[in-house]
Specification:
hydrolase activity; 15 helices; Beta-lactam/transpept-like; alpha+beta; globular; Beta-lactamase/esterase; Serine hydrolase domain-containing protein; about 15% strand
Amino acid sequence: MGSGQVVQGHCDPAFRGVREVFEAQFAQGRNLGASVAVFAGGRPVVDLWGGIADARTGRVWERDTPCLAFSCTKAVTAAAALLLAERGEVALDRPVSGWWPEFGAHGKEEITGEHLLTHRAGLPAFARPVSAEEAADPAAMADLLAGQAPEWAPGDGHGYHALTYGWLAGEIVRRTAGMPVGEFVRREFTPGLWIGTPPEITAKAARLSATGRPPAGATDPQPDERSGADLLTRLAEAYLDPQSLLNRALHNPSASYNKPVVLQGGWPAAGMVATSRDLAAFYDALIGGRILRKETLAEGIRERVRGADRVLLVESAFGLGFMRPAMTFMTPGAGKATAFGHTGAGGGIGLGDPDKELAVAFIPNQMGGGMAGDRRSYELVKTAYAALS
């Protein structure tokens, strides 16, 4: 089947390059199924999808096929916390123990909401194995983290809280709003972002398919864009070492992300199921001031930390929950100063740029080789920026 027959949907002529790149990725065998969406100037200009949603059955990817977006979830959870802070319901610069007393144990009494949102709490991994069934209970996950001592002095550097982030930042929402993150997001933002899927959404979701290639590092772009073979070696060693922070942060809870217990469990760091259309619309609403006030968003995306990540080992940079351009969030030159968002382990991305009035989302079901986005998303984002000029 030719790539032109695989891809369906709408593309503004000015953004035809995005369609061409998307089609080429299918033609090259780099996508099994996927969707991509772009908003520019508040207007939907790209809404494309194609390929196979389930390799076992041959089920095709349709217009409303949602897919797990992995850590793209974190930006949505962060926005929920920021909305509550904007309303004056929680003070992110104050100690968490003020609204979560149990959390102050084991040297964590000075950790603030900002620490939770910027990966500086020192709690990147659970101290004991956690099952997927346990992970569906946010109160139990919060209790586990409250009872742990931090891996490093809170605030002394940052390290990617790959999964625990969701139950830390998510506790801001759960305790303040009185409901899980997924319920709050559907009520306040859009019903199309599922953090915890009902059975009917679970059934129509795309099924993830592995590439058979072990993760090579935090991002998929070519090694010459990183700092050399030594870093790649250290990443590979850390990924395989069961005692490393990287391994422990990524693999506990450990479960197949295709299983209903995970999709329905509402993991607020990596469990969101969505279409690219709905994820891009979320970013368009963010930059348009329809979810947060523009001044709140400006503070949320203001860079708070940058440098060597204690967990990922490569450079990462964060605002309050949002990634900023770095090795974990590869962004073309036009977006280096202004883009924000979050990548996902499957190769996807959600990105907003308030200065360029651009929102982009890409969600595939063929897993990439990195933990935080890959070459496919970078190519699509780069082409979308190019179309603006």
